[in-house]
Amino acid sequence: MNTNKSNRFMPLMMALCVVIGIVIGTFYANHFSGNRLNIINSGSNRLSNLLHIIDDQYVDKVNIDSLVEKSIPLILAELDPHSVYISAKDVQAANDDLKGSFSGVGIEFTIRKDTIHVQNVIKNGPAARSGIKAGDKIVSVDGKAFVGKIVTNQEAQRRLKGPKDTKVKIGVLRYGSKKVLYYTVTRGEVPQKSITATYMLDDKTGYIRIKNFGETTYPELLISLAKLSQYGFSNLVIDLRDNTGGYLTAATAIANEFLPKNKLIVYTQGRKSPRQEFRSDGHGSYQKIPLVILINEGSASASEILAGAMQDNDRATIIGRRSFGKGLVQQQIMFPDGSMIRLTVARYYTPSGRCIQKPYVAGDDKDYEQDLISRYEHGEFFNRDSIKHAGPAYHTSIGRVVYGGGGITPDIFIPEDTLGITSYYKEATMSGLILQFAFTYTDDNRPKLNTYKDMMEMSHYLAGQNLVDKFAVYADKNGLKRRNLMIKKSHRLLERFINSRIIYNILDEEAWTEYVNLGDPVIEAALRVFRNHAAFPKKTKTVHKAKGRRAELTGKDSQLFDGRIRQHMPCHFAINA
Q1: For residue 41, what are the contacts with CB-CB under 8 A and spacing of at least 6?
Q2: Which of 51, 60, 173, 176 would be 137's cystine partner, CB 3.0–4.6 Å?
């Protein structure tokens, strides 16, 4: 009986609830409409509403995804120069550079005359095991012709890279053969080394060049140190020139190898990121070895962290030119569609408290991007006194003065060497003609060049081949008019550049590094430091100004530093697949 009564009153109770809901809703609508409007009109909702309005009411059909894709980079550009958006299709390529490997066929290639030329085959990689050789020209992929305008770096990587254990059929033309040769390559993990050279500079001094700071850099460093130990090294040079950075953890792990316990390496701090310190644990195996670190204007981010930690802790002598000045910390944030942003969330600070980041104006990248050219025009590449310090003075652990607000200023400054640079040399390098000539010469003389397995032997052979004159003939046929007086003045630079590229084409990047380091004034300065037992800085240390060779500059020389041999790193010309 009670159940029936409850059923009779149920409609009345539901009606009463509806009335109460209407009354409450009306009350809140009347009293809080202003707040509701503010919420809708907040920035994020305005953007969302705008997209909805465009999608619903715009005169033509609009691809909203494409519109968002174009808008995000513009929004991030208003923040700082290093907060960036990376589309889903570019995420893998963006991350591959810092990983210890990628999945592909294992070749390094360049594109010439709409054809892929295999510049190098990675030793023991998938392509090498299948029979593909350096010098081969790829003309087909998976049974389809792959020559002509369709051949781009992106398209080549898309066709050649792929998931591990998948297969790709590659057709190649080989020097001396008129038939297309076909190879089926099973893609696999291809190692990418961030340490590209490890060798002895002299009987006591080991040399390690770190190209970037990736996932495997620290283990690679330990292997390099073990290799140098076999030669009995007692001094060490770490070359960070043109190292654009990478993972913070790699830089701090390397710094830890050289510092005693509880030394501050770096700290980060931001508006929403509390101060986080990275300190040494005292387990490093090389805490007392004399150490020199080389930097230049291309050294950035993680390389500046390592150099700054060594400088502020008075652990090493820093030689070269002022570093780039990238001291912003980015966090990778993925979107559901596979794209991501690298958002600046904090700043890096060296142990003395100086911020590495050089000044910038939010939303205006023009001056920031032109900074290196401005430094050159201002004379900073040639005179330490021309360096403009944007920040106050700080002090190292023993009281030496260092400066913040724009990179790491070296303890020993080495000016840029411009002796022998002419307009002919600049055009030869920047046009790519030297690279083209070097590759053509390599291809035409590969059987002979392959007989040389040692850098010094090959360099002696190349020195007798009159390559500068052969290049001048080649360049003249390809649009660069011969200028005999300029060629004579630039002969040393031209010969070194041409030879270095041929050595790289036949041997490897380590051999290339050894060659370009011969006679390098920065390397020579490092060796002098060791001979003078001055690798450990002292408070009474005076400022060193190395004598550099400098040519007379013309009004057009603001682009001159782009033509240096060291700026033409192998990774800038060859693409991995």
Answers
A1: none
A2: 173
Q: Is 65 noted as a catalytic residue in this protein?
A: no
Cα separation, 572 vs 103, in Å, equals 20
164 carries an active-site annotation = no
Which of 83, 224, 280, 301 is catalytic? The answer is 301
Model pTM? 0.81
Q: What span, in angstroms and rounded, lies between the C-alpha atoms of 189 and 103?
A: 5
What are the average pLDDT values for consecutive 10-residue runs of the chain, which has 577 residues? 53 50 49 43 74 90 89 90 89 75 85 84 86 89 92 88 92 85 92 93 98 95 98 98 94 98 97 95 97 95 97 98 91 91 94 89 74 69 69 90 87 89 92 88 91 95 97 94 96 96 92 96 97 90 45 33 42 59
Instruction: Identify which of 225, 242, 243 has the alpha carbon closest to the alpha carbon of residue 234.
Output: 225
Query: CA torsion, points 445, 451, 453, 455, in degrees to nearest 10?
Result: -50
Residue type, 81: P
Of 161, 193, 211, 326, the catalytic one is 326
Active site residue 202: no
User: Which amino acid would we find at residue 102?
Assistant: F
